[in-house]
């Protein structure tokens, strides 16, 4: 059939051009993971959390401090000795200098330092899950945009096919007019239809171009880079509801975040309870001291030596704040448990709803595939009838529009099936590119 041959030619031409600059969905995702700014910012947040996981930040290591001080003054001094002798000096100098090293180490604080260290590690886990969630969102957005381009590009090809058909209709109408079998009005109507198709193509090409700009933005690269995309939207029709529910419990980042927050609430309670116990701190240091005085019994002195000791403190009464802090920490644990139950219900509801939509879209994709095939056959038959003059130009235009609409619905149905699949995989926290 001639129409089939025309469409096959377009597909072949597009395939050749794509081979020169094809961007696969995997390449789009990999480029986004490497360049996207939100992902980089989330990676930096994780690096900060990793840097904070140290024994020193938890207060488990000693602190070493270097000290230096010097004081100088000039005074007009008068002294009366025990013997009654009076001594006076103008601008008497009094100088002192102290320097040394001091070391302090908290060796016991009710095990609070260990709780703080565990909290720092949980903060690192939070950063890891936040990064995972950011990556999931960006990957989902990139894949959605990519396959939307595929859908709109396929529609653009269908419009190109329609334009070729409209041009052939115009040639046929002009031939029929030249031999007196058609009126000038029919030729003008066909010309209007062709102009309408070309106008539709311009708008559709603009849609595709803008989508490509959006995808370039998601990949954080030059917005003007041209590329071609794959020819078809492939979707996974093998997802099972029970398996999705189980995977969500293991991989969903929101559930993981809440579980980590509950663990942190438990650690916070331990840290608060540590204040009931005494805090023991070791102190030591080595100091140098020099003094100089122009008037007095001692004109100059030097000293150096080691000092050491231990300090211990315990909270006896703080206005019942200790008890209040412990109660608040316990309430936070209860809230974390409620949030886990709430989030489980929310996620299960989202999966069940998305899965129902997914099944509906799969059925629509199968139905629209059949409709497209029927519309294509109808267009071929109608074109042949139009050539021999057995149907009017209006009837042929209806068949032509039905074909474009069928192609559009089929592409939309495939895209919606893919987006439904993608939504389910994003909810469970495990998007694959297979």
UniProtKB/TrEMBL annotation:
Signal sequence range: 1-19
One Pfam family here: OEP
Keywords (A to Z) from UniProt: Cell outer membrane, Membrane, Signal, Transmembrane, Transmembrane beta strand, Transport
Compartment(s) of residence: Cell outer membrane
Stretches the record annotates as Disordered: 72-91
Transmembrane segments: none
Keyword presence, Transport: yes
Bias-annotated ranges (Low complexity): 72-81
Family to which this protein belongs: Belongs to the outer membrane factor (OMF) (TC 1.B.17) family.
This protein's name: TolC family protein
């Amino acid at each position: 059939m001639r129409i089939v041959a025309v469409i096959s030619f377009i597909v072949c031409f597009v395939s050749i051009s794509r081979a020169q600059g094809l961007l696969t969905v995997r390449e789009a995702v990999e480029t986004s993971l490497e360049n996207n700014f939100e992902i980089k910012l989330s990676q930096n947040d994780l690096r900060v959390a990793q840097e904070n996981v140290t024994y020193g930040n938890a207060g488990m290591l000693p602190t070493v401090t270097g000290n230096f001080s010097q004081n100088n003054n000039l005074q007009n001094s008068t002294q009366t000795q025990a013997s009654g002798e009076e001594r006076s000096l103008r601008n008497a100098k009094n100088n002192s200098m102290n320097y040394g090293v001091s070391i302090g180490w908290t060796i016991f604080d009710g095990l609070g330092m260990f709780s703080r260290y565990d909290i720092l590690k949980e903060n690192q886990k939070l950063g890891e899950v936040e990064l995972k969630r950011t990556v999931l969102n960006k990957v989902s957005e990139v894949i959605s945009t990519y396959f939307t381009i595929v859908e709109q590009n396929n529609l653009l090809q269908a419009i190109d096919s329609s334009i070729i058909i409209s041009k052939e209709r115009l040639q046929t109408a002009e031939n029929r007019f030249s031999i007196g079998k058609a009126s000038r009005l029919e030729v003008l109507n066909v010309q209007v239809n062709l102009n309408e198709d070309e106008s539709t193509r311009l708008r559709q090409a603009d849609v595709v171009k803008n989508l490509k700009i959006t995808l370039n933005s998601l990949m954080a690269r030059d917005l003007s880079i041209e590329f071609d995309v794959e020819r078809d939207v492939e979707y996974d029709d093998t997802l099972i509801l029970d398996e999705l529910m189980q995977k969500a419990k293991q991989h969903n980042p929101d559930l993981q975040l809440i579980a980590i927050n509950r663990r942190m609430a438990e650690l916070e309670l331990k840290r608060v309870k540590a204040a009931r116990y005494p805090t023991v701190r070791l102190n030591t240091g080595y100091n140098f001291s020099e003094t100089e005085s122009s008037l007095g019994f001692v004109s100059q002195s030097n000293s150096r030596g080691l000092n050491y000791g231990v300090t211990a403190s315990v909270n006896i009464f703080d206005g019942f704040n200790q008890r209040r802090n412990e109660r608040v920490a316990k309430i936070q644990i209860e809230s974390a448990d409620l949030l886990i139950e709430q989030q489980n219900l929310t996620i299960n509801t989202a999966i069940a709803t998305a899965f129902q939509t997914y099944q509906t879209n799969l059925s629509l994709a199968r139905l629209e595939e059949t409709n497209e095939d029927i519309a294509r056959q109808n267009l071929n038959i109608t074109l042949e009838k139009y050539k021999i003059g057995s149907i009017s130009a209006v009837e042929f235009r209806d068949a032509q529009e039905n074909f474009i609409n069928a192609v559009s619905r089929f592409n939309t149905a495939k895209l919606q099936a893919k987006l439904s699949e993608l939504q389910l995989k994003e909810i469970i926290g495990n998007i694959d590119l297979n």
